[in-house]
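Predict structure. Chain length: 1323.
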Amino acid sequence: MLRLKAFRPNHDKILKIQLHPTHPWLVTADASDRVSVWNWEHRQIIYELKAGGVDERRLVGAKLEKLAEGESEPRGKPTEAMRGGSVKQVNFYDDDVRFWQLWRNRAAAAEAPAAVNNVTSTFTSPAPSTKGRHFLVICCENKAIFLDLVTMRGRDVPKQELDNRSLLCMEFLCRSTAGEGPLVAFGGSDGVIRVLSMISWKLVRRYTGGHKGAIACLMTFMASSGEALLVSGGSDGLLVLWSADHVHDSRELVPKLSLKAHDGGVVAIELSRVIGGAPQLITIGADKTLAIWDTMSFKELRRIKPVPKMSCHSVASWCHPRAPNLDILTCVKDSHIWAIEHPTYSALTRPLCELSSLIPPQYTTPSKKLRVYCMVAHPLQPHLVATGTNVGVIISEFDPKSLPAVAPLPTPLGNREHSAVYVIERELKLLNFQLSNTANPSLGSNGSISDTGKLKGDAEPLHVKQIKKHISTPVPHDSHSVVSVSSSGKYLAIVWPDIPYFSIYKVSDWSIVDSGSARLLAWDTCRDRFAILESAVPPRIPIIPKGGSSRKAKEAAAAAAQAAAAAANAASAATVQVRILLDDGTSNILMRSIGGRSEPVIGLHGGALLGVAYRTSRRVSAGAAMAISAIQPMPLSGFGSSFTTIDDATHRSAAEAAPQNFQLYSWESFEPVGGLLPQPEWTAWDQTVEYCAFAYQKYIVISSLRPQYRYLGDVAIPYATGGVWHRRQLFVATPTTIECVFVDAGVAAIDLETKKMKEEMKLREAQARAVAEHGELALIAVESPQTSAQERTALRPPMLQVVRLASFQHAPSVPPFLTLPKQTRVDGDDPTMPKELEDKKYNEVAVGGGGVSVAVTRFPTEQKRPVGPLVVIGVRDGVLWLVDRYMCAHALSLTHPGIRCRCLAAYGDAVSAVKWASRLGREHHDDLAQFLLGMGYATEALHLPGISKRLEFDLAMQSNDLKRALHCLLTMSNSRDIGQDGTGLELSDILNLTAKKEDVVEAVEGVVKFAKEFLDLIDAADATGQADIAREALKRLSTAGAVKGSLQSHELRGLALRLANHGELTRLSSLVNNLISIGLGREAAFAGAVLGDNALMEKAWQDTGMLAEAVLHAHAHGRPTLKNLVQAWNKVLQKEVEHTPSTKTDAAAAFLASLEEPKFTSLADAGKKPPIEILPPGMPSLTGLITTQKKPAPGTLGAQKQQTPPNGAPAATPEQQAAVAPSETSEPPAADGQEAATISSSSASNPDPSASGENNVTPSGSNPEPVPSGEPVPVPEEHVVGEDKDATTTTPASQQEPSSLPSNNQGGSVGQRPMLSMSDFLA
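Prediction complete.
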């Protein structure tokens, strides 16, 4: 699958191109000498400059810098003002470039069987030399430009400082002495190589006597003996070898070897790594040939003409698992990238892709054909190839998800040697690998293993010992293959999807037990069962004969398109078949066709359930169509057929939603499980079938499977290529990193329900079995009461934590303007490490108490990820094993305590995890304890010595260790010494009162801060019957609650209820005034009721405005304050009735309105708006108590006769009523005999109306209803208002505050007072 990764249009030809190994940066130089640095991931230009001429911005910047440094008059012409001339080469240089250049050279040299001992023992990472700077180096004819991309400051080195010779090419030298710093070699027009120091910016040595003409290209590599060499190619056609070791400090160096390579000059040199052999050199020349050289004997191995009549301008060594036979990529000035298959024997050249089909059509016209002028493969991600053309820069991506054809075999118990099976060409081979040092690796070591088996760090080396063995059974095909192993490890499956063909081998004797035609194969994780996608054999794609041309390439593309169409037809007829391998080694078909769906199958995923992906009929987007069209002109052996059928789902554009086309099936019943899902790119199932991971392009979805399926979450790990479970750890490889995901399902309510349901089902089954065996009598034994303590299982959310173990990046960049201490020679070290740690040989290790090595960081610094696509083998011997595309095993250390503790906890050994935590700095124990808590090990986490008190409290609460939780809480709140029941003050206490007061204030503040925790602790203690702990906590909290305004209202309420619950009456009484002051009348009254203090209850209600409750209580208990309370309450109600909504008026309008208000002319007018009067049953009217003997006016005599009650009392005006009602703060007057006589017997029979919720209330003028006691209430006649003299009502009322009155009260005489029941105000 080839697709466009990034495209940047350009009007000029792109002649020079280079990729940065670790950052997504691409530098190009075009025909008009404009240099651009482009971020191809974010599609942004980082920097641009005109290198050929004079860049005005740089010139002005240089002048400003010099002015800032105090130089007023420049001495001579600045170097920025010199014309650069044509750009000959562009490159990046920083610590990453330096490291990976050295790594590539050593790894290639280490492949030679004779070189292993020489090379592996001496590999040490280079010391950081550029100190966080990222240099862009531009080699122009007249000068070299060194530009720092961090600070944007540059340095120009004119050719006058390099013997005044034109600079044509450059190369960075790996080895240099400490004083010289980084070295860069420039090839001159006079055949001399000059070496410049990037610290002194001076010429340090020359290589002379090799070339007669100009030098065209330079490259460093390492011989199998371990010697660093520099090879140069000149316009005279010579290939010259020089020593680049610099152990002898000589100014002039002469060549070691010189040989004729090409007629007409050498154009480019490339290093090729050979599996199991010495590295090779590839050269291309002006004579249109490509030559391959052996670096041991320096003899020519092969010479070919890749594309007839056209000379190559770029060459790249390539090793991609999707195309295992293609070793070299090259480009000529046409629109293809060409690949050379088996360069040392058959040497067939094929077009890998037609680039014009990748770019948007508007950039190419019939008159402007696409032409490639330069090409480079990514040094660390071989699936990325960048090409510079006459229309812009194209970065193409070639199947980033394909993995090396290797699969691990299970290791026998107790065996330290592990093995994996891999396919190379037509051979099946066995890779045995193990850690060669038997001792435990150093604590805190954070090294990664290079190809050569040496740690990239100064920790104890973890040498990898590996042996490759040949298996006698041959393999039928040499095209792209996929290797997998059954769950038991007894069988190995190999699928060649391009053929299509599969074979199943028995591992014990490597005999073939099953084979046939299939493009996809998936194993069951529980038994030796597999599913295959059977298909009819599509026609083979034609091979271009040697010596093809562009015309032949087009013919081949048309043939490939036909073959792809035929393959699509064959795919639509394919069926999914399940077979089982029995113990005798025979294969039997279980199910001939799974699923009744008619859509063609495009993917199979093995696991505890079989996943089948179908092609959905959907509209193809323009981006997908473009990508599909790019695939079809691929005449590689068997390519195209599987690309357009199997991988079609991955051509989706980002905007297009993922179709629901993935169905899970049971291996047992072959029935669908659940609904349709989006198709994942790969799936990984835990060996114990507890967890599964489905990987999509941007994230990985993780779910738990037991006790039932539950989605846990997704982790944002984009472009993951594969993953392996190790208990609750998922190790994931991406093209640039290695990640570890720690997973725990937590405890959800649905899990507990499912568990309970399953236990009940088991119990019923046991009963049914017992009845079947022994009859009904058996139930007596089964149903006997089981005394099993019901444990309260705390719910726990799921936990997903991602830790990055390895990446390509070097140590974190430190900007150069920071002062740097002396650098350590540790690759992944923090550069700002103090001197005392630097002298330690452990990576990031300090010495703790008792001489234990303690890691000073939370996690190890990222280790170096091996290059290229990787297969994750899994964890064996405490290290994570990986195998790369060169079939080399690598080990990633997991011994840093931050990682080790997590791995042990995830594996289920929390006790060992806590022991290992002693080697982790105590400042990281909180972090580790949170992890253990998420994994369900709260009790074990309590044993970590460095956890904070706050976290210790949470852990103690989780693990039900309430005594420890109380101690933590007392320490955090500093409240050990308050709340004690003291006997009195001694003399010393009196003398230290000031200090004691300060302590109490501090303690109260502490308790207030942790009030919620105190309440939680009291509840937990009450729930588990630990009353003494609850009492200790209550003492502290009530002491703080007694301070006015300290606790919030909800905290005070909770405290009051808990004090009442525990019978702490003394402390409760001190709390009541605080409750009243913040308006918690109910709680204060409840406290008064618990204390048995009626006056306190009334005060609580009265002071918080709950007058209805106060009246009812006073009436029920015969309190002398009843009259005052009723008057105060009626007054409040009257105010609420008279309240009118306020409208905005100015002062004048308000004054005029006041003049227009009607004035009262008589008491009769006042009686038209009667005051509200609501009374408890049997209480006399408040207005009846006012006796006025004033004679009425003659005009109103008749009205008064009708409107006055029998005792002749007139209606009281609001002013008079207010005068009668005493203020709330005045002393309650003594009740007269009449009031005492009106308390009804029925209300006296209910002494606590606040508890019962039913109260006896008689508003005047109501209709008569039976009283709950069944007897009417006798009321003296002279006190009843209105005509119904014997009417009484009993109305149930709730204890709520009065909210509002009905607004339709009609005015009138006192005798016609509105009939309002008490429930209207209390309901």
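Summary: The chain has a mean pLDDT of 76.
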